[in-house]
Amino acid sequence: MADADDVRRLALSLPGVVEIDSDGFDFRVGGKGFVWSYPERLPGKPRVIRTDIAVLYVGDEAEKQALLLGEPELFFTVPGYDGLPLVMLRLAAVGGERLAELVTDAWRMRAPADLTDLADDSGS
After folding, report:
1. H or E element in which residue 22 lies
2. Which of 5, 25, 33, 102 is most exposed, with minimal Cβ within 10 Å?
3. Above 90 in pLDDT, residue 115?
4. Residue 122 has pLDDT above 80, yes or no
């Protein structure tokens, strides 16, 4: 079972990551977001930042669908994210090792090559 503190620890352990000031968590590398708190929008209600759900960059629609279909207990999406390479991750349902893999993969897809090369050299 993971939480926002686990996401923060993992994200900040990666090269070149900055945390953007937000009501939850929001991490970027090379100016590009790779993991952040889910901004839930329900009809007729104000937006709520959900720190128990992470939005992850997954690269493309094929990867998104593979995650949604393969691990529905972990991942979901909403209509506002249709066509975007993003999934929502239920943090309470994911283990630490899997979370580390997901955050690192999202970072790799968004990080500039010089940073991913640095991480490869250091074993991240």
Report:
1. none
2. 5
3. no
4. no
Q: What is the pLDDT of residue 42?
A: 86
The SS3 assignment for 5 reads helix
Alpha carbons within 13 angstroms on the beta-carbon side of residue 110 total 26
Q: Which helix (H) or strand (E) holds 107?
A: helix 96-110
User: Any idea which residue has 């010089």 for tokens?
Assistant: 114
At 15, list the tokens. Answer: 């090269």
Which residues neighbour 29 within 8 Å (Cβ) at sequence distance 6 or greater?
14, 15, 16, 17, 18, 107, 110, 111, 112, 115
Q: How far apart are CA 122 and CA 118, in angstroms?
A: 6
Give the number of residues written for the chain: 124
Q: What is the pLDDT of residues 71-95, one digit of tens each?
A: 999 999 999 899 999 999 999 999 9
Instruction: Give me the domains of the chain, ranges plus CATH numbers.
Output: 4-113 (3.90.1150.30)
Quote the crossing angle between the two packed helices 96-110 and 4-12, to the nearest 10°: 50
